Amino acid sequence: MVRPGDLTGHSDFHLFKEGIKPMWEDDANKNGGKWIIRLRKGLASRCWENLILAMLGEQFMVGEEICGAVVSVRFQEDIISIWNKTASDQATTARIRDTLRRVLNLPPNTVMEYKTHTDSIKDKTSFRNTKIAL
To answer: In three state form, how does the secondary structure of the chain look?
Structure first.
């Protein structure tokens, strides 16, 4: 598999559970949201691999709440996001955030943003107008 750091230009990798499409409108996603982490260039491959292993190893310990993950390679930065089913479940979204911070070994000052898919549908964007949460 090509690592995200080896890609040039504008690319996205999606890894979702079987039967779940990487679309805001999918039945499994429509009431959910995603944690978003913006990475400086050079970090995406390691973070993506650690995220995939954590998902497969069920390290998030949130049952069936995780829908999938996306890595977006952009010109000046890379973006990793993990999608969950229930945006209104604050305890679960907080557990996902904390596990994500741990498995990616993120510095304490790393900004993590959460955006509901409802908001993404309204403003037709994945990464703008996010709610910042640390």
So the answer is: CCCHHHCCCCEEEEEECCCCCCCCCCCCCCCCEEEEEEEECCCHHHHHHHHHHHHHCCCCCCCCCEEEEEEEECCCEEEEEEEECCCCCHHHHHHHHHHHHHHCCCCCCCCEEEEEHHHHHHHCCCCCCCEEEC
